[in-house]
Fold this protein.
Amino acid sequence: MADAAELISERDFGFTNRHFEFLRKMVGEHAGINLSEAKRELVYGRIARRIRALNLNGFDEYCRLLEEEPDAEIGNFINAITTNLTAFFREEHHFDFLRDTLVPGWLKAGGHRPHVRIWSAGCSTGEEPYSIAMTLREAMPPAALGDVALLATDIDTNVLAHAEAGVYDAARVESLSRARLSKWFRRGRGANEDKVKVVPELQELIRFRQLNLMQDWPVRGPLDLIFCRNVVIYFDKPTQRRLFARFAEKLGPRGYLIIGHSETLYNVSEEFELVGRTVYRKLN
């Protein structure tokens, strides 16, 4: 253990820079999230709860568990860190794949007005569907968007209300380029100067709806692309199998499914082939 001068928190457990950097590296590798310095206390609070639940003595033991037995705890670790934690262009390679591979394919197959249907399942506070919408707006001619529809769903009506409003703390968009900030967001004034709001051009592409993945899906198919990232880690294997089978039913021939870095279809579904980093294509 480091000396007291290195402690980040003097609460129940010692929490050092070494602990924070190790956990930040783990969440980056497994969930694609770059935790900022501002997230130190969030990490402490959420992992301290895991330490208590596991009856461990502190962060040394917890980090050792993740290092030596990752399969036993990595899902719970990612859950603890990522609950309602999302970001614009999180796991950016997924949006690169959408821009560089899917959009050109849709335009080639559908001409000037392709018929495209996308579902963001488990959209939380909206950063994912708005990132999809930005990618589409940047990669497709305006006329080509006339028959493009994006459905965003979540079980939580509170986060959906946040998503539909499209208003975020300015700190949430600090990682975006100046070009994207100026094009896709408007900064508030007066009492709202620390807020930003997405422009109507993004909002008009998206329909937000409440949906429980364990119940009926009033989702019209066939779909071309489903984003369902960092959601199935909450379910056991039998539930995951049923869920991915239902996704396959909703996707059209050769449709795509994108999942999170802490997730896999290995031993869960044989209806997809891996074509990129946690990017799958339906086999038929």
In short: Residues 1-9 have pLDDT under 50 and may be disordered.
